[in-house]
Design goal:
single chain, alpha/beta, TIM Barrel, 2 domains, 8-stranded parallel β-barrel, 11 helices, binds 5,10-methenyl-6,7,8-trihydrofolic acid, binds 3-methyl-2-oxobutanoic acid, binds magnesium ion, 3-methyl-2-oxobutanoate hydroxymethyltransferase, magnesium, 3-methyl-2-oxobutanoate hydroxymethyltransferase activity
Length: 273
């Protein structure tokens, strides 16, 4: 049954998420990039929909998240927003639209909010992007941080290996989390870091911490929905739990269609005018 069958839907806000952390209720988050998928996730009762820049990989077929543009992110985000009745919609600001220039960061965030109708933005980085985060927040736009494995700086690191395994990197990550909290971020995503370190971050900051490959001791979890549904090919990091084999289901359906077209079984009389 859809949660929307009840007449009054309580929307998820950043305040609701803070209450969930206080209560110890875990927060569920997944990506979506289009209207149809977002409607399914929202109807199922998901708390947060992330319009991730992983759309660059999943939707457009790029190797990295770097090529996707602000206009393309706004297109995805506006499609998602039209389907959502309850979830909080968070949009990644793409590479090159906020780093190192707080005026551009603010302009990008405002374009996303104005043109898509989303509720918040997400940015990768800590102290080095503080000015941009502060500027966006001062305009009244809620900001989610993102630390650990930050795919927009993949060429700085060179690999997708687990981050902050060394003491000094772990200390920097905790310091960055504190900076983001002090700036006024409403939540932080932690990607691919040791579970023990993620636990420490979730205990240190009072805002919700959402993990992907960051273990169970955080306030919520996020995955790319196409990975969870088994649509993505050849992406099986150990943090992923695959809940369905939609690639198999979809392939079988399309093969059935092809067979029926070839054999002239489709369309039949009932399917014709
Ligand atoms: N489909 C998809 N799912 C994601 O989770 C995702 C994207 N795309 N694109 C943007 C970023 C990139 N992310 C990644 C990318 C690679 C690994 C990873 O663990 N890769 C290898 C290990 C690499 C290594 O250890 O050197 C793996 O095991 O698959 C994790 C997260 C997460 N995001
Ligand atoms: C993996 C999540 C956290 C993300 O940033 C994305 O999907 O772009
Ligand atoms: Mg992202």
């Amino acid at each position: 049954m859809s949660v929307h069958q009840s007449s009054n839907i309580k929307r998820i806000t950043t305040h609701v998420l803070q209450e969930m952390k206080t209560r110890g209720e875990k927060i569920s988050m997944l990506t979506a990039y289009d209207f149809s998928m977002a409607g399914i996730l929202d109807g199922a009762g998901l708390d947060i929909i992330l319009v991730g820049d992983s759309a660059s990989n999943v939707m457009a077929g790029h190797e990295t998240t770097l090529p996707i543009t602000l206009d393309q992110m706004i297109y995805h985000a506006s499609s998602v927003v039209r389907a959502v009745k309850r979830a909080l919609v968070v949009v990644d600001i793409p590479f090159g639209s906020y780093q190192g220039n707080s005026s551009e960061a603010l302009r990008s965030a405002i374009r996303i909010m104005k043109e898509s109708g989303a509720h918040a933005v997400k940015v990768e980085g800590g102290a080095e992007i503080k000015e941009s985060v502060v500027r966006i927040l001062s305009a009244g736009v809620p900001v989610m941080g993102h630390l650990g494995l930050t795919p927009q700086s993949i060429y700085k690191f060179g690999t997708y290996t687990v981050r902050a395994k060394e003491e000094d990197e772990a200390a920097k990550l905790i310091a960055d989390a504190k900076v983001l909290e002090e700036c006024g971020c409403f939540a932080i995503t932690l990607e691919k870091i040791p579970a023990k370190l993620a636990k420490k971050v979730a205990e240190t900051v009072s805002i919700p911490v959402i993990g992907i490959g960051a273990g169970p001791y955080v306030d919520g979890q996020v995955l790319v929905v196409h990975d969870l549904l088994g649509i993505t090919q050849e992406f099986k990091p150990r943090f992923l739990r695959q809940y369905a084999d939609l690639r198999g289901v979809m392939t079988e359906a399309v093969e059935g269609y092809i067979k029926d077209v070839k054999s002239s079984d489709f369309p039949n009389d009932k399917e014709s005018y």
